[in-house]
């Protein structure tokens, strides 16, 4: 058992504080370092492959195989509407409009995505270029809308999972 | 004449040492540190920044790679931070600038790089991928975008990465 401290003791035990100066030094070094490598603006990229320029060294163009049909999905964008065309028989589109009016961009993009999903589902497996979409736009269409359309045409979110629609996007060289 | 200081009094003075309280500053630093750690990017700044450029917004999750960079601002087309051609002359289809949808000054600049890339591929086996990051303003017209893409493809850069701002 420890002895009881003498009541005659005159000194007082002062509360001790940890020395924070080395930690402060570390912070002063760490913060500028992290500030320099902080990512305040997040960037992403959309990959787009252009067809190689025509020339004498280019490999001969493949002729279409006989007996196989190509989907040839084309999306035309003007300042007021989206028009979708493909080689599926017209009977497939009985109750479906191939034209989306561009009143409200967000709503129109959703309708376009629904239409593309419908086409994707109705395309038989033996069709060629099932994953390809060609985009053609008119003068006056802004780059932001093209990016939105590319994003809309590539994937669709269904039941918390992403489904591929037409991941191969080609921009047409022609202007409507 | 001043009085001589008392020796008794002098011994009784308790000199209090002023201490800087670092606790609150430590708290601030810890919060800043956590915030910066959250926004930390090992890739660093891959792209140059231009004030008058508004990138399109998208939800793409692909990460940008470091590579050659083409910037299309509302005033000028830049390649590797060097001004190449004013956008106004591209829009007006000036005959000394645009021919058959190809932007001639841009093509000349790009061809210099692509021929150098091909030379490196031949000599040292470093593959020339023809990759080019395109940072274009969100209000750019499709007609100009097509001209730029056509020029890139024609000059050997067929693998384009369109840079967007993540949502």
Features:
heterodimer, A: 176 residues, alpha/beta, 5-stranded mixed beta sheet, two-stranded antiparallel ribbon, 3 helices, 24% strand, B: 167 residues, 20% strand
Which secondary-structure class do the elements of chain A indicate? Answer: alpha/beta
- Tell me the overall shape of chain B: elongated
- Alpha carbon gyration radius of chain B: 30 Å
Assign an overall shape of chain A: elongated
Number of helices of chain A: 3
Strand content of chain A: 15-25%
N-to-C terminal Cα separation of chain B, in Å?
Answer: 79 Å
Strand order of the largest sheet of chain A: 4-3-2-5-8
Could you characterize the architecture of this molecule?
The complex is a heterodimer of chains A (176) and B (167). Chain A contains 3 helices and 8 strands, in the order αββββαβαβββ. With 176 residues, chain A is α/β, with parallel strands linked by helices. Chain A has a 5-stranded mixed beta sheet with strand order 4-3-2-5-8, with helices on one face. In chain A, strands 6-7 form a two-stranded antiparallel sheet. In chain A, helix 2 (105-122) packs parallel to helix 3. The radius of gyration of chain A is 32 Å and the shape is elongated. The relative contact order of chain A is 0.15. By secondary structure, chain B is α/β, with parallel strands linked by helices. In chain B, strands 1-8-7-2-3-4 form a 6-stranded mixed beta sheet. Chain B is 37% helix and 20% strand. The longest helix of chain B has 21 residues, at 104-124. Chain B has 5 helices and 8 strands. The mean pLDDT of chain B is 82. Chain B has helices at 7-12, 23-38, 87-91, 104-124, 142-154; strands spanning 57-58, 69-72, 76-79, 82-86, 98-99, 102-103, 131-136, 159-166. In chain B, a hairpin with a 2-residue loop joins strand 3 (76-79) and strand 4. Classes of the chains: A alpha/beta (176), B alpha/beta (167). Chains A and B meet through helix 1, strand 1, helix 3 and strand 8 of A and helix 2, strand 1, helix 5 and strand 8 of B. Strand 1 (43-49) of chain A pairs antiparallel with strand 8 (159-166) of chain B.
């Amino acid at each position: 058992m420890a002895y009881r401290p003498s009541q005659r003791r005159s000194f007082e035990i002062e509360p001790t504080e940890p020395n924070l100066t080395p930690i402060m030094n570390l912070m002063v070094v760490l913060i500028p370092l992290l500030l320099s490598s902080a990512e305040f603006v997040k960037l992403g990229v959309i990959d787009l492959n252009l067809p190689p320029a025509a020339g004498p060294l280019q490999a001969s163009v493949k002729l279409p195989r006989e007996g196989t049909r190509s989907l040839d999905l084309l999306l035309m964008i003007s300042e007021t509407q989206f028009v979708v065309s493909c080689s599926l028989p017209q009977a497939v589109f009985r109750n479906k409009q191939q034209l989306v009016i561009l009143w409200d961009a967000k709503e129109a993009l959703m309708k376009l995505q629904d239409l593309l999903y419908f086409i994707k589902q109705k395309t038989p497996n033996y069709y060629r270029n099932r994953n390809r979409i060609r985009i053609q736009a008119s003068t006056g269409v802004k780059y932001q809308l093209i990016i939105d359309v590319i994003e809309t045409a590539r994937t669709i979110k269904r039941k918390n999972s992403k489904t591929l629609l037409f991941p191969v996007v080609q921009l047409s060289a022609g202007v409507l | 004449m001043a009085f001589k200081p008392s020796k008794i009094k002098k011994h009784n003075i308790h000199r209090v040492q002023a201490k800087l309280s670092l606790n609150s500053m430590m708290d601030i630093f810890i919060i800043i540190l956590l915030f910066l750690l959250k926004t930390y990017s090992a890739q660093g700044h891959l792209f140059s920044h231009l004030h008058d450029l508004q990138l399109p917004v998208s939800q793409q999750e692909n990460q940008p790679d470091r590579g050659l960079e083409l910037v299309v601002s509302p005033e000028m087309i830049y390649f590797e931070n060097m001004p190449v051609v004013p956008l106004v002359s591209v829009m007006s289809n000036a005959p000394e600038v645009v021919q058959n949808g190809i932007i001639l000054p841009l093509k000349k600049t790009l061809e210099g790089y692509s021929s150098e890339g091909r030379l490196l591929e031949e000599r040292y086996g470093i593959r020339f991928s023809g990759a080019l990051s395109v940072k274009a303003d969100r209000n750019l017209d499709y007609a100009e975008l097509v001209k730029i893409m056509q020029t890139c493809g024609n000059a050997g850069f067929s693998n384009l990465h369109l840079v967007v701002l993540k949502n």
